Amino acid sequence: MLRPRVFPDHERASQFAADWLVERLRDKPDSIICLATGATPILVYALVAERAAKEPSLVDRCRLLKLDEWGGLPMDDPATCEQHLRSTLVTPLGMADRYVGFESQPPNAEAECSRIAMWLAENGPIDACVLGLGLNGHIGFNEPAASLQPHAHVAKLSDASLAHAMVSCCDTRPTYGLTLGMADLLQSRHILLLVTGAAKREALAQLLRGQVSTEFPASLLQLHGDVRVVCDATAIDIR
User: Fold this and answer.
1) Least CB-packed of 20, 47, 56, 217 within 10 Å?
2) How far is Cα 205 from Cα 3, in angstroms, rounded to an integer?
3) Which residues of 109-127 are buried (b: 16+ CB within 10 A; e: fewer)?
4) Which residues are designated catalytic?
5) pLDDT tens digits, the chain, 239 residues: what are they?
6) Considering its fold, how many domains does the chain have in total?
């Protein structure tokens, strides 16, 4: 059963998550770090970047792997996961040569997923993974379904994903998703799930009930032996 670590606010939850990620980097300097994007983890990455600027050895051997991407958006669109990671970590820390991620407008989306799957098969597994929780329980673009794909794949986006704040103001709308699969994530050595904000309260409550179903993909994290759930007080009913 997953048990969350609850903090008073987003800032303190983010500080804990940043400390957790720094600890993983110190434990294994050549780690593969898989990162989700969006508003929830952005402070975590800013805090890690601050630490790494003062302690460059934290990131001089690790590799970053992008969890997912909005298919159909230009790569330079501010809403892409690409731009989120480049602006917070990749560019500030000079990690372009140790960063791997899906192209958002590949000529062949299936071939792009095969490229990422092959890279992970040759270099993995993931050492530390920072994830967020979708309103409908999605992890990355592993959307609720009767069955889930294990590895990198093209995903049909749910209405919940298409309504995400990241793409709400885009001139170009995403038409599909590219994502690592749940098997890729469950093979990670360490996972941190960061959940903040009142909007996530219902989804977090469902996760913590402990039932496992592909119709709520985040519930598969119950099957992993080292998942740290971190949330703020607004995301959980503590009555």
Assistant:
1) 56
2) 11
3) beebbebbbeebeeebbbb
4) 68, 136, 138, 143
5) 899 999 999 999 999 999 999 999 999 999 999 999 999 999 999 999 999 999 999 999 999 999 999 999 999 999 999 999 999 999 999 999 999 999 999 999 999 999 999 999 999 999 999 999 999 999 999 999 999 999 999 999 887 776 767 765 667 778 899 999 999 999 999 999 999 999 999 999 999 999 999 999 999 999 999 999 999 999 997 65
6) 1
